[in-house]
Amino acid sequence: xxxxxxxxxxxxxxxxxxxxxxxxxxxxxxxxxxxxxxxxxxxxxxxxxxxxxxxxxxxxxxxxxxxxxxxxxxxxxxxxxxxxxxxxxxxxxxxxxxxxxxxxxxxxxxxxx
Amino acid sequence: xxxxxxxxxxxxxxxxxxxxxxxxxxxxxxxxxxxxxxxxxxxxxxxxxxxxxxxxxxxxxxxxxxxxxxxxxxxxxxxxxxxxxxxxxxxxxxxxxxxxxxxxxxxxxxxxx
Lengths: 113, 113
Description:
Chain A has 113 residues and is mainly β. In chain A, 0% of the residues lie in helices and 50% in strands. Chain A contains no helices and eleven strands. In chain B, the strands form three sheets. In chain B, strands 2, 5, 6, 10, 11 and 12 form a six-stranded mixed sheet that branches. Chain B starts with a strand and ends with a strand. In chain B, 39% of the residues are buried.
């Protein structure tokens, strides 16, 4: 069964460092998303990406965040200068179309120290 | 703006007893509704979805949910829970003109022996 894969599963970084979280969405999907879940809290929308551009972003997704689909398979989330409050589980998701089921990866746990 | 409310942060239930996890949403336009499950230390998995048609939706692992437009609810039910159902359950909504999913805060289902 096709699945969304995320690497690494756990990343520890120092405050102020740049991190790149990687995702391989399901191959025939067209919509890609990043969500985050701070420990013990709800899953929050960060950004959606369609047709090689951001289609929507939340207020969390400020200038420190960026997304890229550098080739036909990867979808990355970059945080330029990490802060302690960026520590969270980051989930990548993809869907075949708008309003259809989104498939989520297993997540990357980012710990900023 | 749309929102999702899960009133119960935790629900303790005895094994083999029935359970209902409540979800209410608010939106001025048509919505699509989902329930996702997050098992300990894992990602998000779709339990079931309502896009259109029959208001009673059956999902995996014996769960079902009923869409009630007049009460703007989408409660999740299972007639007999098992210890393996211990997880966090997230109700989610997406608008029919949008693609991002908005999640509720989650309900932790705690199965008592």
